[in-house]
Amino acid sequence: MTAREQVExxxxxxxxxxxxAAGRLRFHAVWLRDNxxxxxxxxxxxxxxxxxxxEIPADCRITHAALSGGALMLQFAHETAPIAYDLAWxxxxxxxxxxxxxxxxxxxxxxxxxxxxxxxxxxxxxRALQSDPAALRAWLFAMRRYGFGKITHGPVRDGAxxxxxxxxxxxxxxxxxxxxxxxxxxxxxxxxxxxLGLQAHTDNPYRDPVPTLQxxxxxxxxxxxxxxxxxxxxxxxxxxxxxxxxxxxxxxRYCARFEYAGSDGICLRSRRPMIELAPDGEMIGxxxxxxxAAAITDVPYADMADYYAAYRRLGELIDDPAGxxxxxxxxxESFVVDNTRVLHARKAYxxxxxxxxQGCYADKDGLLSTLAAMEQMKGAAE
Amino acid sequence: MTAREQVExxxxxxxxxxxxAAGRLRFHAVWLRDNxxxxxxxxxxxxxxxxxxxEIPADCRITHAALSGGALMLQFAHETAPIAYDLAWxxxxxxxxxxxxxxxxxxxxxxxxxxxxxxxxxxxxxRALQSDPAALRAWLFAMRRYGFGKITHGPVRDGAxxxxxxxxxxxxxxxxxxxxxxxxxxxxxxxxxxxLGLQAHTDNPYRDPVPTLQxxxxxxxxxxxxxxxxxxxxxxxxxxxxxxxxxxxxxxRYCARFEYAGSDGICLRSRRPMIELAPDGEMIGxxxxxxxAAAITDVPYADMADYYAAYRRLGELIDDPAGxxxxxxxxxESFVVDNTRVLHARKAYxxxxxxxxQGCYADKDGLLSTLAAMEQMKGAAE
Lengths: 382, 382
Hints:
Two copies of one chain form a homodimer. With 382 residues, the first copy, chain A, is of the alpha+beta class. Chain A is built from nine helices and 21 strands. The radius of gyration of chain A is 25 Å and the shape is globular. The model of chain A has no long low-confidence stretch (mean pLDDT 94). Chains A, B: InterPro entries: AlphaKG_dependent_hydroxylases, GBBH-like_N_sf, TauD-like_sf, TauD/TfdA-like. Chains A, B: Belongs to the gamma-BBH/TMLD family.
């Protein structure tokens, strides 16, 4: 707290204003009471809120406010004991600021990329990630930042991909199993199991919720071709927005449809936009997959031609070599992609030699939680 | 096809119009070419699209169109062979219609409910669900319709809940394990593991993607109290919208925040709205949990008072007994909720006697796919 910090009650106690180094920040009484951190409001052990909003009067009023050390002491009209608020916490959680994000903004911890990332592919050493928390934290940080990471020097062993998942989270089992084999099949139920090249895509857009992480682990790789490639879907969408804001808006505003019914007993369908925005415009997801795109029927006739033009252009931007990071995986190497953002592709490969990958899905909640907990521990230790 | 069916080429071949019993429906040439079902466009076995949009010219034009039996034969300028389209498929997938959904619309297979559902709780018999496809289909249909279903006469056996998940899909493993035990603990990491009553809530809103199904399975139930209750969050949101459209809009337009950091190494956070709408206004999710709601910081000061009033009112509607379906589970009984829609609550229970539930998460993709595949088989058999 600076000496200049001041507090002022507003609107008869329905709000207050704090004035300090960060400027003048207003807070509503009901928000303050709901966000108190005293032991009667939040369980001391696990931080869960013990009260419901219904226990706070609708006409919640502050009758007295005072600054004391790093704390703001508040007396509410409906209670006898004052509650202390940490000023630093209030500054961090202040909401009295101009809005003003433009559609397609991304979170501050995200950095979009192009082929230039080839020179600095985020890579972790399998054993270091297992044994060295600093190495794991750095790799997870890169995963959150770039939506993609490679892991080298892992074991060449059936199921080793589960050890990758265990570094940060949990496998998402699906109708494809806890994991799936990616090698040429004679009667494939999915084109992924052929030697065909696959255009860059996100996996399983027909699934809702979509698997938010994918792990692909190389066990054999002697066939010619079959290189892997990744491309940042957020960057492609940003490029689309820069050259054609209306096209970006169309792909975000209307739902596409996806479907997969390639196996008996399976009929997966989703209705979600190719570019998913949070209600305030944050870009939070890309769905792009020519193989499983179903007929788009939620775009009105008047917008369909422009929608298709934008869809085409997004595909061109995704296919643009200027955005591609490509690599060949050797046995024991793997890569992880944020399947809500980074598209992956495979070049065609020949039938001579072998190519055997194992893949599985996992989710970002575990990865981001593991990273956030490590960052908090690091912060506490410093 | 009726005798009156006609086809007309529009805009120099960039579109066509079909006129028949369904009225006049226009389709763009590029949409038609992209959605062809010939064997060169879609893999005959699994239905996956074999071409990318880039392989269709941007100026895709129809040069000749003719009706023949139930088919529309189209010749595209850039190709030599004509392609046949099924007229029934075109009618089903037509997009030339007025938009006009209002915000908060729900899918046609969803029916919102209130306490009146007490008289007809969707219930399946465990053994029948395992052995009789018609019984399973009926129960899954009710799950999709009401977002909630009960199962009776299951085994009283540790892990029996996995047999419930296997009826339709796959367990979503999380930091709580493949399943979690719900009984009173001495030093609980989560208030769910105490005897406290819990306000109706959706589970794990701090997780993204949220688990879309929850299974709760009763193994012991001799403690006084502890009744379970469910309430339709979509109905509560519909009521809010009817009495306060601006409040509904605020809860849909701004993101709330949720957090759980009750265990070592765990720090789960999300930023999602309490009422989630698809870009075209379809209601697709409710997140409501007083215990894990973090400070709401994405609502500007000018809207925060009204936002909080709407949040309060939504909670009152959720707590309204007029919307509650409550029941007591006996050992071997379980219930499943669509965790994106239906909130569940627990009344407080005493420390005497025992109450032991096992819970796990799963996802709707598997459930909806299992149902859709059964419906298609039924349709094909009829």
